[in-house]
Predict the structure.
Amino acid sequence: MSMIFTPDVPAGELTIAECRQVRLACVAGDALRIRAAAERILETNRRRWHGRGDFESFPAIRRWQHFRSSPFATDPSPFELVEQLASGRRLVVPGAAAALAAAIMVTSGCPATSHHHDRDLFVTIYAQAADDLSLAEDLAVTVVEVAGGRVTQRIERTVVIVSAAPQTRQPAAPREAPAPVESPVVPTAA
């Protein structure tokens, strides 16, 4: 199944990519254990990224910068999370599900969302072709299993995402018309 989402942006300003979307439905297990495991992963990533000024060159971060305003954008984005860790700040996440999504994003660079409903936990991960979807998915499954839960359903589909060019891009300066070029005169044989 393929889906296409197109924002109202002029064609010259669009970035188009095909990505895989994986949705995991899980019996959550112990939410406190999910949060504790995710926070350990976040702390490890804080040490990994702390003081790094080159985090913007992390390939997954660069790939997903084009889609910060797409329907698949997460809030905060993988870029924003890694940026906070690089500056040495600890991430403040409002619960087990948010901690798990943040742990997936800062480890793999793949956008992820997660929400908890009663005893169920739902995780969605997006990956472009060059992203490490296996890492992101294994991380989610491992955290759920460590907490005594299990994955009950896995759905994977391909989605085509279309988004505006990166927000950091500066508008091009107006160009002057090129100066006329005179054609050289080539003598012809008479």
